Every structure is written in structure tokens, then in C-alpha cells.
Amino acid sequence: MTLLRERLGGAAVLGIPLIWIAVFMLLPYAIIATYSFWIKQYPTFVPAFQFGNYLNLFTDPQYSKVLIRTLKVSLLVSFFAFLLGYPFAYFLAFRCRSQALRTWLYMAVIAPLWVSYLLRAYVWKTILGTEGILNSFLMSVGILSEPSDIFLYNQFAMVVTLTYIFIPFMVMPVYTSLEKIPRNLVEASADLGMRPIPTFLRITLPLSMPGVAAGFTMTFCLTFGDFVAPFLVGGPDGNLVASVIVTQFGTALNWPMGSALAIFVLVIVLAVLSLSDRVERAFSPKEA
Amino acid sequence: MKLRLTMSAILALAAAPAVAEGTINVLTWEGYADSSFIDKFVEESGCEVNATYVGSNDDFAPKLMAGGGVYDLIAPSIDTTQLMIDLGQVEPLDTAAIEGWNDIYPKFLALDGIQQDGKYYGMPYSWGAIAFMYRDDAFDTPPTSLAALWSEANSGKISLWDDKSSIYVAARLNGDMDIYNLSDAQIEAAKQKLIEQKPLVRKYWSTAGELVDLYKAGEVVISNTWAGYQSSLLADEGIKVTEFIPEEGAEGWMDAWMVVKGTPNKECAYKFLNMQLSEQGQCGVANVNGYSATNGVAAKSCMTPEQYAALHQDDPDYLDSLLIWQPLGERFEAYLNAWNAVKAQ
């Protein structure tokens, strides 16, 4: 009786999440995948089994252009998030001696996550605009004689905004992996006569690679699916793949094409995830 | 006592749907259910009004196709009304139950997009032009042609509506005036024209509020606009802009109220239609959005002579000069695809 109850309990604990995943993740994916073989026909679309939408993805230059641009922006965002986030996490983990200061600084990076995404993106509009804070500042210190419009409504603005928004997703995993590195490894390296920079390059950095890979993956994937930044701070050359998907599902009423794009994006994201998984495993300490 | 409590609870539950019958959900544009004239309607008719706003005509189909029977009334523009009929989302109107139907300008009742098989599906409500607009302080000589939106002189200060209508604009600049029946080659030429313009564009605007912000922040000095609307919002902000109809002409639009198929709230829906076509609704939207009225009789009696003239109510030539939007049907995809290709560049 108790055994049965335990089994039932176990089934409930495991079963509910499994049903959840099946209904709210796998089923929608299956529906999207099905739609991607359908065909557009006025006024909407009709069931079919054909690869025209996927073919379109590769033959119509508008899709490859947007995909390449999205790839570029995502890589830049991940790169800058790494460039800014890593030294910060390093400072927190190794150099910051005060526990209070460390907590405080860590919270300073995480806290913006509690503020609405939209609001944070919007703030950058007021900073980067022609009559914005950055221009006023540059003019007041005499670097610019008249306001410049090069800061807003272009890819630069998108990369800046997205880097700012997603940087916590780089700092968190990097900090966690740095913190896990035993301090005596660094000391041992110094005792053996290795100077700080080689120590960092050969001990600390490789050991923190799982965190870097995780941070890179998250910032990359989040950027890849973003459509708010292009809408708010992107310019005429700022169309990203998520905006195109939105257009296909909305304006164009071409759910099949939108679904094909979505499936393609899913494949790219899964590829990045599996790649990062390999990187993480390659750099993880081998367990005997 | 206990029984009575239960009974009253049941009665209250039973009464709830009765209250719901007096509620209509409308999917429409901002201003079309403005409290300045809807409050009075709610009070007099006993029908509650819940409004959901769209940012573009392209929002109607996805919202209705999501199902659920949420909306009772919609107000798409004349380029989208046909799609609503073809999608089977709307039902024919009982025009006899709409007072003032015969006061609607005949030109609007003659439009194809609101009727099928001898039945009307849309009630003309308001109309206007997709005019062009510039900031007074940015131009010594006022622009008169679309060429101003392709001029190096305005580089980085130009905005265009993020909509298939940009193809209409570029086609007119190319001299292709039959903008709703463009051939593939003409669409391609318009696309090239827009790609040529792209480096000069600051931002494609997608909502009315966004365009107002762009002018306010000094980012943009010339663009197209929903005549009467954004310019008055900017005037409230103290920014001087002027609307103009370029030499190459402008598109016109008309919004029509449609009843969603199978609505359970027909009574309130028709009360709402009657109110919208009366002076209350016609001048309501004219005052809030600055749009022109479709019911000439109502407009004449509730507008001041100045407003009547400013909204071109007395000026059939103005209306005739506009290229009223038409449903593109199967050609819609070609237009939209060209516009998407421009944006992807």
C-alpha cells in the first residue's frame, strides 16, 4: 500500500512536469512544424506537404540577409557582453575583498532584470537620441559642435542596448564558474614560478570556460530571438529574424512561412546549444 | 434562510450572463471608442463597451483568427474589409436597422470592399487622407512633391510608414498612378526606389505615437501621416507641422464598422452602430482624431462651419482627388513581399 502510494507520488512528481512539457512545449513545436509545410493561399493558407517555404528561405535573398544580420548582431552582443562581463565577474570573484561590496556589485548587475525589458530598451532611446543625453554631454564637453544622429536607429544602437540588457546572463554563469575555482590552484601556479598573466591564460580562463560558454549561449540565443530592440532602437537597416517572423504571422497572414522561419531559428539555437555543451564538457575537470 | 441564501446566489449567477449580454467588445482604432462620446452611450443604452486597440489593419485578421468569439465589432479600413468578408469573420448588416444609413455619402456606399452578393458588410464611419507632413522650421520653401522624401537635403530626417503603402508612395513617384493594380515590374521598380531611399531614412514608423515621438525628439522633419491625427497631437506639444498633399497625389482611407459573425450581443452592437453613425459618433471621432465624417447630414449639423470645411466635408473634389485604398486580394502578397525585401536590405 505504502509502496503504491510512493509510486503514485513519484509518478505525480515526474508526470506533471512531463505532461506540462508535452502540452506546452512539444505540442506547440509540432504544430509549428506542421504549419511549416502548409502553403499560403488567399485569404489565409491551406494544408499541404511541400518544402516551398524552406526553399524560399534559401533562395529569396531577403531571408538570408536578415539571418546573416541577426547572426552578426547576436555574435557582437555576446562578444561585448563577454568583454565587459568577464573582467567584472573576475573582479568580483578574485579581487573584491569585501563580502558586502561583492554582494552589492553583484546585485547591481542583476537588479535591472527586475525592471521591465521594454522600459530598459526605451531608456536607451533617450540616451542615444539626436537630442538625447549622450549628445548633450558630448556637446557640453566640446567633442561635438552639433548633435549627431549616428548613435540611434542603427545596428550600433541595437548592439549597445542588447548588450546592456543581456549582460547579466553573461556575468552570472561566469561568476559562478570563477567562484568554483579553488584558490590554491592559482597560488600553486605562482609558487611554481608562473607569472599572473600566463596563470590567468592557462589556469583561470580554461577553468572558467564552462561559464563563458553558458553566458555566450544565453546572450546569443536571447539576442537571436529579440524583436523589441529592432523595433525601438533599430533603424531602417535593423530588421532581425524575429521581426520577420512577427510580420509573417501578423501582417502577411503567412503562418507557413513564419513557421518555417521559426523552425530554422530553432535549429540554429539547438546547434548553438549543443556546441556550447561540447565546449563546456571539453573544459570541465575530468572526473575520475 | 440558508436556502434563500443559496437561491439568491444561484439567481446572481444566473443574472451574470444577462449583464454580459449588455457588454460589447470592440476591436478598433484609438479614439473610436473615446470616453468623450462613449460614456454617454453606455449610460443611455445600458451597453458596456470594452475597446481593444489595433496599431495597424494587419492586426484584425490574426486577432479574429485566434478564435474565442471575443469581439463583437471591428473597424478595419477599406483595404482590409474585403479580407474580413473572405475570411468569413463578419456577417451581413441589417441596414434597415441603422438609422442614417441613407445619409452616408454615396461614394462610400459604392465602394467594393464593404459589400458582397448585394449585401453590405461594412458601415462607413470615417475617412481621411494619408497625407504628408513636414516640420515648419526645417523648410524654407515648403515641399510640394514626394521627391522631398528622396532628397539628399533631408537625409537622415525622413520617415515613412512601415506598411505596404510605402509601395504606393514609391510607385507614384515613379509615375505609376494605378497603385492598386501594379504589375510585377512596377512593384519591382517601386522596391528599387525604396531601396534607393533607404540610406536617407531615419526610421520607418509603425504607430501613430511613434511618429509623434520622432518629430518631438527632432529625429524626423518629413514623413507621411494619418491626416488630422498626428499633426494635432504634435500641435498639442507645441511643434509646428504642416500637412500637404503632394503633386503625385495621396491615398485615401475609409474605416467601416463590421459585425463579427455570430455575435451574441446583436442588440447592443446595433445600438452602437446607430450611435456611431449619428452626430454623437460622427462628431465624436472628428473631435478626437481629426478624421472626416461619412454621414454628411450628421456632420453638417454637429460641426462648426470651420471644422466642416477643414475636414473637407463640403469638398467632393478633395475626396475624388484621393486614391481610396482598395483590397489587393491575391496581389497583397506581392506588395508586402516587396516591402519586406526593402526592409531586409
From TrEMBL, chain A:
<feature type="transmembrane region" description="Helical">
    <location>
        <begin position="104"/>
        <end position="123"/>
    </location>
</feature>
<feature type="transmembrane region" description="Helical">
    <location>
        <begin position="156"/>
        <end position="175"/>
    </location>
</feature>
<keyword id="KW-0812">Transmembrane</keyword>
<comment type="similarity">
    <text>Belongs to the binding-protein-dependent transport system permease family. CysTW subfamily.</text>
</comment>
<dbReference type="InterPro" id="IPR035906">
    <property type="entry name" value="MetI-like_sf"/>
</dbReference>
<dbReference type="InterPro" id="IPR000515">
    <property type="entry name" value="MetI-like"/>
</dbReference>
<keyword id="KW-1133">Transmembrane helix</keyword>
<feature type="transmembrane region" description="Helical">
    <location>
        <begin position="73"/>
        <end position="92"/>
    </location>
</feature>
<protein>
    <submittedName>
        <fullName>ABC transporter permease</fullName>
    </submittedName>
</protein>
<feature type="transmembrane region" description="Helical">
    <location>
        <begin position="12"/>
        <end position="38"/>
    </location>
</feature>
<feature type="transmembrane region" description="Helical">
    <location>
        <begin position="212"/>
        <end position="233"/>
    </location>
</feature>
<dbReference type="GO" id="GO:0055085">
    <property type="term" value="P:transmembrane transport"/>
</dbReference>
<keyword id="KW-1003">Cell membrane</keyword>
<dbReference type="GO" id="GO:0005886">
    <property type="term" value="C:plasma membrane"/>
</dbReference>
<dbReference type="Pfam" id="PF00528">
    <property type="entry name" value="BPD_transp_1"/>
</dbReference>
<keyword id="KW-0472">Membrane</keyword>
<feature type="domain" description="ABC transmembrane type-1">
    <location>
        <begin position="67"/>
        <end position="276"/>
    </location>
</feature>
<feature type="transmembrane region" description="Helical">
    <location>
        <begin position="253"/>
        <end position="276"/>
    </location>
</feature>
<keyword id="KW-0813">Transport</keyword>
From TrEMBL, chain B:
<dbReference type="GO" id="GO:0015846">
    <property type="term" value="P:polyamine transport"/>
</dbReference>
<keyword id="KW-0732">Signal</keyword>
<dbReference type="InterPro" id="IPR006059">
    <property type="entry name" value="SBP"/>
</dbReference>
<dbReference type="GO" id="GO:0042597">
    <property type="term" value="C:periplasmic space"/>
</dbReference>
<dbReference type="Pfam" id="PF13416">
    <property type="entry name" value="SBP_bac_8"/>
</dbReference>
<dbReference type="GO" id="GO:0019808">
    <property type="term" value="F:polyamine binding"/>
</dbReference>
<keyword id="KW-0574">Periplasm</keyword>
<feature type="signal peptide">
    <location>
        <begin position="1"/>
        <end position="20"/>
    </location>
</feature>
<keyword id="KW-0813">Transport</keyword>
<dbReference type="InterPro" id="IPR001188">
    <property type="entry name" value="Sperm_putr-bd"/>
</dbReference>
<protein>
    <submittedName>
        <fullName>Extracellular solute-binding protein</fullName>
    </submittedName>
</protein>
